[in-house]
Amino acid sequence: MNTEAQIIELEKSLLTLEVRHSEFELRKRIAPGFKEIGASGAYFGIDSILERLPTEQSWSAVVQDFEFTQHSEEICQLIFRAFIMGNDTDEGTYSLRSSLWQKFGDEWKIIFHQGTKVEPFELSP
Question: 53-80 pLDDT, tens per residue?
Fold first, then answer.
């Protein structure tokens, strides 16, 4: 599998409840120094992620329009659009997202993520 496909697969896996509910799986994918600026404007690190994600119940995401850039042998970036619903009554949030991934030995881990709210866009079928 090439690097682009691997990073897209890892990014998508972070959006599944199976991974989000497992501290072990999250730690496999998220670097210890991870930082995020959420679409809400909140700024947090891995400790917040490990406390919050495993408690989510009815969370879902639709992602599309991936743009991959490999900046070096060890650093790459994935930009994409997402529609995220936090629960069944949530109207959802449209966002443009960017993740930085770093290679640690043979494993890629996310080191930074930012989501920015945007106007609604057409979701791919």
Answer: 988 888 889 999 999 999 999 999 999 9
